[in-house]
Design goal:
Layout (H helix, E strand, L loop, with lengths): L2 H16 L2 H6 L2 E6 L2 E6 L14 H20 L3 E10 L7 E10 L3 E11 L6 E13 L6
């Protein structure tokens, strides 16, 4: 795709993200979309923390789910749902997160996608992997609705 087509695709994908009330609530931003990849950024805000001051695990799982959905959707189209996913937590998130997803393989009706979530560590200022996941994205069977 051209740079202009990439910008249009990212703009359309961001409109889809903006139509998700939960994504708006937590301040998620889609900063990369297309060619089997997606990147979602989530800020480190007090209302997103758990009792020990770390980003809540549900927010990390959300980021994986949406990043794999957008990556899969960049290959399959917009009529998709997450068919399943796994999440592994590696360390607490002490700063804003980036969820970066890449399609591993795709068919006409599904895509297998992997995702890594990194956070900016508040103590060192370095980016560290805090969670990872894999998922399957499936086309919605519009005929069954």
């Amino acid at each position: 795709m051209s740079d202009e087509a990439d910008a249009i695709a990212l703009d359309v994908a961001n409109r889809i993200l903006a139509a998700q009330p939960f994504s708006v609530l937590i301040g998620a931003k889609l900063t990369q979309f297309g060619g089997g990849t997606a990147r979602i950024e989530v800020p480190f805000e007090p209302q997103l923390l758990q009792q020990n001051g770390f980003l809540h695990g549900g927010v990390l799982a959300y980021a994986i789910d949406n990043a794999i959905s957008f990556a899969g959707g960049s290959v399959l189209g917009p009529s998709i749902l997450t068919a399943g996913m796994t999440v592994a937590y590696h360390r607490p998130a002490r700063g804003p997160i980036l969820a970066e997803a890449t399609v591993i393989t795709a068919t006409r009706s599904s895509a297998a996608v992997r995702c890594e979530v990194s956070a900016l560590d508040d103590r060192t200022g370095e980016r560290v992997i805090v969670a990872s996941g894999h998922g399957t994205i499936a086309l919605i069977d519009r005929g069954a609705e």
